[in-house]
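Q: Start with the shorter request: fold the first protein.
A: Done. Sequence, then structure:
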Amino acid sequence: MISVILSATLNIALTRSQLEYLQGKGFSRWARHEGISDEELLKTIKEMESGLVGNNLGSNLYKKRIARKGEGKSGGYRTLIGCKLGNTAFYLYGFPKNHKANISAKEKRALKELAATMLGMSDKNLQKLSQAAHISKYQTKRINIMDKSVLDAVHESAKELHKAGAIEQQTMRKFDALCLPPVKQMKGADIRRLREREGVSQPVFAAYLNTSKSTVSKWERDEKRQWEQH
């Protein structure tokens, strides 16, 4: 049987013979908000086990429909699932069909990276996630966390994995690059004008930014880019 883990900002649902929730932010809260039952989530995974995998997006990422209560699947929900068939499945993201038509190529890359990261975690790291979930069972909040963009949700999931010690800083940087908007680089003269406008010296400005006076000086002379700290 597939072990189902509901994810997106550290929601963990570990199943052996039944679905057990440790509910926090993310997919499981969204599912409850939308009235998607535990049984429906398990039914969806069982369909995948029987060969009804939905849309295979590659790299163990699947898009699977879930029916809205009282309606058919065509007008219901779309879920993005990281899954190794016969082994483990992670619900990564969900949305109503009328809320979002499809995911972009960039969103797909980020979801595939998250799926690969989570599916590749050791039992020890999965246990770290479980221990890090300081949350109560069946906690309910009327917040639709999936109103977040796909990239925001993926990045929050990665941050929670990193916070729990389940992924390294290098992997977190990869998610930063995939999910965060590019940082606009400032010219040295603009940095100097900003500092002078705030009325602070280079050492004080450096302290605000948790860097060195030498680095600020090099920024202002265009000898170093802002992402280069040393």
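Q: Next, the second protein, separately.
A: Sequence, then structure:
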Amino acid sequence: MSVSPDPSSPFAVAPVRIVPMRKRHLRSVLRIDQQVYPRPWSLGLYQGELAQAEDRRIYIVARAGREVVGHAGLVLVAGEGHVTTVAVDPAAQGRGIGTRLMLVLVRAALDRGVGAFTLEVRASNDTAQRLYERFGFTTAGVRAGYYAEDGEDARIMWAHQVDTPAYRERLDDIESSLVGPPPIDEVRNARPAMLGGGR
């Protein structure tokens, strides 16, 4: 559940840096997951993802100062980007961190030639669905009982025709609507090998 941003907090206006996920970030990533997911990923799963070839995975974290406040990931398969995770520390929710993560993640994937995006999201997670809809995702179907821990359905969402000037303009509009500074993107300028983890 989102919390209302505190406009008096320095964090509310501080720039957020989006950087490639590294092994040193995983303790913070796991801490966030344990707070927001009923069945969080394991350390071994993240390590396995970061060990994959850099042309098949993009994993990033959002940092406010020295703190990791969110993360996101995407798998690239046959010209499509499958968003695997987007999570924000509950203490930092409601401040546009998820939007900033999605902006950087989507742009990095477009730079690699992705032509469509897909993801699964809990049917009850209206906040996440609204975020994805801003990025052009629409519901294409339902996976009944997808979440094994409680049997909840998942909505399958897709965004098509993303390799177009119109879609990049959409991303620019989202960025211009952000309250506070846009994300400092240290992902698109990183060496490709760094997107797969590193130290």
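Q: Describe the second briefly.
A: The longest strand covers residues 67-77. The domain at 14-196 is CATH 3.40.630.30 (Aminopeptidase).
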